[in-house]
Amino acid sequence: MAAKERDTSTICIFDVDGTLTLPRQKVDAEMAAFLKKLKMKVKVALVGGSDLVKIEEQMGGSDVIKSFDYVFAENGLVAFKDGVQVGQQNLLKHMGEEKLQKVINFCLRYMSELTLPAKRGTFIEFRSSMINVCPVGRSCSQEERLQFAEYDEEHGLRKKFVEALYANFPDGGLKFAIGGQISIDIFPVGWDKTYCLNYVERDNFKSIHFFGDKTEKGGNDHEIYEDHRTIGHTVTSPQDTMKQLTEIFFKE
């Protein structure tokens, strides 16, 4: 379809991990080509909980912000439109050091008492707009990542961790969300993926589609999936994402 026929009143917003790529893996050639084809039909945006560096690693390098109409890192707290940064929030300024340290110290104590199949390094990752907590450690190997994901699935480890966080910080104005395969995201209420809609709404889209794999309650795609402004789609894999998009936009 020619570029002039592109429907600029419709946008598709995609989670990255588990939706466009396998968790923490690079986008494959089939998906990359499919997204280029989709971009000829409608506008396309990415929204990830990860920082921009990790999104770049997964989605094709440093030109990612120019390859999509919008790129939202850290749930949209770091925002790019047409290759230009249009917004950034700061967790430290918002919360203050004392409150942040109470949360971080609690997480470190909690994780110190867990016995897992493996423990590696980088259990707390401080991002500009959120804290990412990882019981297995973000420096784990791919094999150890999968091992933890299986253990977590069986024992509900992250679910129990989130429950403990809410119990200890009931009035902290914070959200605790299960993200990806191995971690928990901590951020102020309202700083979930719906934050990116603040930018998208300005362009007066008639249809805003969101695709994500963690749309269940407690998952980091839940709020934007449920938001009244979006048409939510739950996917199970990158292949499922392409299948659903084909049904919506490429059905003959």
Explain this structure.
- This protein has 252 residues and is of the alpha/beta class.
- The chain has 2 domains: 3-89 and 192-249, 3-Layer(aba) Sandwich (Rossmann fold), CATH 3.40.50; 91-188, 2-Layer Sandwich (Hypothetical Protein, Haloacid Dehalogenase-like Hydrolase, Chain: A, domain 2), CATH 3.30.1240.
- It has helices at residues 29-39, 52-59, 64-67, 91-95, 97-112, 142-155, 157-168, 197-200, 222-226, 238-249, and strands at residues 7-14, 42-47, 70-73, 78-81, 84-88, 124-126, 131-133, 174-179, 183-188, 207-212, 231-234.
- It has a 7-stranded mixed sheet.
- It is globular.
- The model has no long low-confidence stretch (mean pLDDT 94).
- It catalyses: alpha-D-mannose 1-phosphate = D-mannose 6-phosphate.
- Its cofactor is Mg(2+).
- Summing up helix and strand content along with how strands pair, one would put the structural category as alpha/beta
Sheet bearing the most strands, described? 7 strands, mixed
Largest sheet strand order: 5-4-3-2-1-10-11
In N-to-C order, the SSE pattern is EHEHHEEEHHEEHHEEHEHEH
Which architecture of the largest domain does the CATH hierarchy give at level 2?
3-Layer(aba) Sandwich
Helix content: 25-40%
Query: How many domains comprise the coordinates?
Result: 2
CATH class of the largest domain: Alpha Beta
How many separate helices? 10
Our estimate of the beta-strand percent is: 15-25%
The poorly predicted ranges are none
Count of strand segments: 11
- Rounded to the nearest angstrom, the distance between the terminal CA atoms is 13 Å
Mean pLDDT: 94
**Approximate shape:** globular
CATH topology of the largest domain: Rossmann fold
Subunit structure: Homodimer.
InterPro entries: HAD-like_sf (IPR036412), HAD-SF_hydro_IIB (IPR006379), HAD_sf (IPR023214), PMM (IPR005002), PMM_cap (IPR043169)
Organism: Potamilus streckersoni
Catalytic activity: alpha-D-mannose 1-phosphate = D-mannose 6-phosphate
